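Input record (one chain):
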Amino acid sequence: AAGNGDHQSLQHLLLSVFVWLWLPELAGKIGRWAAPASGAALGAAIWVSSESLSVAFIWVLATAVMQLVPRWREPNRAALELSRSLGLLVTLGVAVACEQDRWFAFEWDKVSCFQIYPLAVHAAFLAAVAFRCKPVWAAAGALAVGLLGLWAVPGLSVLLGGELDRFAEVNRWLQGAVSEFRGLFDTGNGWSAWEGGRRFTPWFFVAPLLGVAMVRDSTRPLPARVGLGLLGLSTLGLALHEVKLGHLFAIPLPLITVLGAQRLAAGRRWGRPELGYLFAAALVVPCLVLLPDAKRSPVLSVSDEAQRELARYLAARPGAERGSVLAPWDLGASLLYRSPWPVVASGYHRNLAGIHDAYRFYLAQPEEDEAAREILERRKVRFVVAWYDRSFFTNASRVLGGARAYFDRATARFTESATRSLFWRLRFGPGVPWLRRCYQSEIEVSSARGQKPLPIFTVFEVRGR
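The corresponding structure, as predicted from the sequence alone:
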């Protein structure tokens, strides 16, 4: 994979190159070429995935702090060269990836002026320092210019605010409905210290102690220690906030582990080279052991088999060019891949309106049936799928907002709003007159112990379409 929001292969490689060049440059142990090369790697990583902007902001914070604190100050020349190549790559990404009428768009989820603007403000700060302006005044001036631009350029603050609002709205859905976007210790039903260890290995709890030891190692150049310390602390915070961002913390973690352990072992029997070899082996050997067996074929779960059955049924139905399918958003990708039918909702954040419509349809109360039918009409829906999974009730309030609750965590019971919902009437009740039951899965599951097994999904056809 070339790297995207779910598979960070190229993105992770580019960010690693940035770190491996930036830190030796801070330590003064590499040539002048390292600064622009590391900036180019970071810029390319932002181009691959806008998630990399979080690492760019960490670098912005680190360089600003190191310029403002005299003891930690790094050479301004290197920071300025890194900033130039970073800005050049991001701007090139906008020129290549965007259509001509979108060059000045602000989009948080892909390379755009949303990324260029804050980087330009930081570059102005570094340029002011290069002209022998005091760092404090340079920082204040650059910040003032950045804020003035938001106020002075017509519509700029509205564009930026709109993108931030869209990001917050998408994040509510992701953190409410997708486990990998929750906090590191968030189980979905509460907080658990074990959850963090299970997701990131118990070594996660030792890393902060080794980080302190690494920062206190006076035998190493101070700017490099400060840079690595800020990178580790910031990416640790990102991992705590959202477990999916843990792959960013995985970049400085090996460096912090080895350097911190070497500091603790100083003056003892184990020397630095030996500890480096030991920890390298400890990191590499488990990776080799955990490599998947090429001879093994994937084992399909009952849910996988049911999704394929559903796709086969839909693929055999004509009229895909004139209608669509309304199903839970997490079935969207499978149905798009295996059948010709478009879907209302899929696991893509730019289709948040479709995801919201699917939630509103399934959650509609009897007095809201007219609004549910309006969704079907507007989305040209021909088939509605009543899937077995009821977990969306637990996060519906967070995704859509509002005070209506569908699941009581204290009693672990569904509320009346859930049992009166359109989903419940389709799944467990007689249905509604304007939807005709046209297919039931051959696979049966039980929703709860002691309950009669039901088809894992039922397909309804919209009458009159």
